[in-house]
Amino acid sequence: MNAEPTTPSPDTSRNVPGTDAGPDAGKREDHLVTTLHSLALPDGAMDYTATTGTVVLREEPEGEEYGRGTAYAELFSVSYVAQGTGDQERPVVFAFNGGPGASTVWLHLGLLGPRRVDSGDAGAPAAPPHHLLDNHETILRQADLVVVDAMTTGYSRPVPGAKSDRHHGLAADRDLMASFVIDWLTRNQRWTSPLFLAGESYGTTRASAVAARLMDRYYVAVAGIALISPVLDFGTIRFAEGNDRPYIHYLPTYAAIAHAHGKHEGRLLQDVVDEAEAFAEQEYPALLAAGARLAPEQKQEAAARIGALIGVDPDWVQRANLRVEHLAFLAELLRDQGLLTGRIDGRFTAPAGDGNTAQMETDASIDQLAPSYTATINQYLRRELDFTSDVVYEIMSGRVHPWSYQDFENRSVEVASDLARLLRKSPHTKVLVSHGYHDAATPFHASEHVLAQLAIPREDYTERIRTEYYEAGHMMYCHEPSRLALSQHLAEFVTGEEPSAVEAPADEA
Question: Which segments carry the region annotation Disordered (predicted)?
Fold first, then answer.
């Protein structure tokens, strides 16, 4: 095992208020451990190294001599590098989750890494003791992989004396992650490797912003961005007074979740989704826009139509003024069974503590999946990767809040303009978009709408953006057929292969 030397970050950002580090900040050192592993694959063994730990990022202090970097952050990551591949031009995938406040354990152990958690699925979550499996579909077969945790998640922390909240915001987080990518490429001499970013949830917000930052600030063009369960414009999913967009974009997801719970008996999921999308795009906006101008019989008819689509009582829809908020829907859908429906994955359920609760009080999908990830990441880092730390590995941290969106005062928080600008600047960058039909956190119809409005030529939209759908939720990889399909789609995306038909499970009526 060995440790890599500390190398100053090339970023020359200036100090800002609240970033004063302690007297020992300049003496901080990397805490890295490299271990050798082998993964048995059907076509033979694949040897790889895993370099695990925290790297010290540095910046040029204002007024100081160039190159005398001051440490300001210690980011935790695991870098997987396949052996014997001539790695100088092998693709590299940088992956991160979102939240804000989520570590990258989800993509790391759920989908991308050479080891994966046995988490179970809806209706059959894994029971302790929790364990890992070899991941024969790991992206490491096609590319080297770097999973990195954002500030205050995982083991990522500011240097002693510095304040973490400096990095708790869209712009600051973007700049920190871009600096990490540049630093890693420099340390590992991988500047000629095709560069990919993969994000999930708010990680797709991050990936789009980071990719644009890399191009705008460093003239580094990414080869591709994988957007898993994306959110590119928060105005499409944030329920707020006077904003009807979320009601429209969530409706097809409600219909898909209703289908998962038997509310559309005898129908195919795709037929239900198609009907719901047609209604959401054509009739629903006009109904909401009509407001008090809508005649009582028209409102009653609309409520009946919506209730039938999403599997709830039309009277409840009418009392909601035709506007069904997502946490309210997740509490209402299976109320007659005494169950709450999951938000991250609407296929999951849990008993309701209060049968009259107005909103979903806890997320059954996270509650049932997170324990397996928590147990296995802590065991894996220590037992297999030989990394130890005296701080808590933050799976999900509320300490990042309040998260700053100060650059978006009086307008919607969005990175669609960043993504469009990147695609206009970088003609070879491609995008893979992955949607879960049962995802009530980042609904697929909202993403479809935002992508269709990107300020890029139509031929770029059709030729450079690939969209895939899965019969699961936000973390669709907990559903085995979806995990296999998504892994294949990612492999094709990274290698540039033509999309192939993935054998999906039979669509149950």
Answer: 1-27
Amino acid at 476: M
pLDDT in tens, 260-317: 999 999 999 999 999 999 999 999 999 999 999 999 999 999 999 999 999 999 999 9
pTM: 0.91
The answer on 431 and 397 residing in a single domain is yes
- List b or e across 150-163, with b for residues whose CB sees 16 or more CB atoms inside 10 angstroms: bbbbbbbbbbeebe
Distance CA 207, CA 170 (A): 11
What burial letters (b/e) apply to 176-205, b meaning 16+ CB within 10 Å?
A: bbbbbbbbbbebbebeebbbbbbbbbbbbb
C-alpha pair distances (Å), 342 with each of 101, 241, 270, 327, 508: 19, 24, 21, 9, 20
pLDDT of residue 64: 57
What Rg, from alpha-carbon coordinates, does the chain have?
23
Residue 291: which domain range? 239-362
71 forms beta bridges with 58
Token match 């945790």: residue? 149
Same domain, 193 and 269: no
The encoded tokens of residue 230 equal 């994306």
Would residue 165 count as lying in a domain?
A: yes
How many residues appear in the chain?
509
Domain match, 346 and 385 both: no
Which alpha helices (DSSP H) does 108-195 contain, by range?
170-187
> Residue 481 is inside which H or E element, if any?
helix 480-495
Q: Mean pLDDT of all residues in the chain? A: 91
Once rounded to an integer, what is the mean pLDDT over residues 492-508? 71
Residue 112 resides in a domain = yes
> Would residue 9 count as lying in a domain?
no
Is 68 inside any structural domain? no
Could you give phi then psi for residue 416, rounded to 5 degrees?
A: -60, -35
At 445-472, the pLDDT tens digits run: 999 999 999 999 999 999 999 999 999 9
**Domain count for the chain:** 2
Give the residue from 220, 208, 245 showing the smallest Cα distance to 98.
Answer: 208
d(C-alpha 190, C-alpha 57), whole Å? 18
